[in-house]
Specification:
With about 240 residues, the protein is mostly helical. The chain has one domain. It is about 70% helix and about 5% strand. α1 packs across α3. The longest helix has about 45 residues.
Length: about 240
């Protein structure tokens, strides 16, 4: 498997390469914008259109998930969680139409993880104060400070690698399967690689659709858990 192809270079600052991932991210962003405009077009106080009912159902589902996982105190994170989930799902599903998944690029998942890391430390400083948050790294005992400090780096790295690795692994498996079935079709002298139709397509649907949705959900759940753990609970 190869990395994202470079489509063109912008001749500024010594040359800025625009690669396949960046173009596909733009496509995903535009697609999400179009979907959002369709779902929210001419909304009414009393919903009657199916698009508005679907939009409200999505918002309610995300709000309930954030409230049950993080608590009412963190409801402001609901739009971020929806954006993160939709970007991840659509970024993975574009492979079904022949485009390279944006989540196959480690830079994509790392950027999401770094944004989550920023929120983790922002909420920690905001809720405990500068000294209080720094003191939390010495809990439960001072000797744990170096290990807890390492977590500043390992938390976003583990999130990024988990998402990236699972999507890339599924893509690698499908590439090997398609190659294997094409080879078998050639060995038995089929006029077309008929064996590439059927089982590989079903497996591709599993890895691209189910696997992509599952990884997006896990990434969002980890984000909510990490953020809510450093801040105060609703009971405090």
């Amino acid at each position: 498997m190869e990395g994202p192809r470079i489509y063109f270079t912008i001749p500024i600052f010594g040359g800025i390469n625009v690669n396949e991932t960046e173009v596909n991210l733009l496509i995903v962003t535009l697609l999400l914008l179009v979907v959002s405009l369709i779902l929210t077009h001419k909304m009414e106080k009393i919903p009657r259109k199916k698009t508005q009912l679907l939009a409200e159902k999505i918002v309610i589902t995300i709000d309930n998930l954030v409230e049950s996982t993080m608590g009412k105190r963190y409801m402001a994170f609901a739009p971020y969680m929806m954006t993160l989930f939709a970007s991840s799902v659509f970024g993975s599903l574009i492979s079904l139409v022949g485009l390279r998944s944006t989540t196959q690029d480690f830079n994509t998942t790392l950027c999401w993880a770094l944004v989550t890391a920023f929120f983790i430390h922002y909420i920690g400083f905001k809720s405990s104060g500068f000294k209080g948050y720094l003191h939390s790294f010495a809990e439960p005992i001072a000797v744990m400070t170096p290990i807890n400090m390492i977590g500043i780096v390992t938390t976003p790295m583990s999130m990024a690698l988990r998402h990236f690795g699972n999507v890339l692994g599924g893509s690698a498996i499908m590439t090997l399967l398609y190659s294997a079935f094409a080879g078998v079709s050639s060995m038995i002298h089929l006029p077309i690689p008929a064996l590439q139709v059927g089982v590989p397509a079903i497996l591709s649907l599993y890895f691209d659709f189910f696997g992509g949705c599952m990884q997006a959900f896990i990434f969002c759940m980890l984000t909510m858990v990490y953020i809510s753990n450093v801040g105060p609970s609703d009971d405090s």
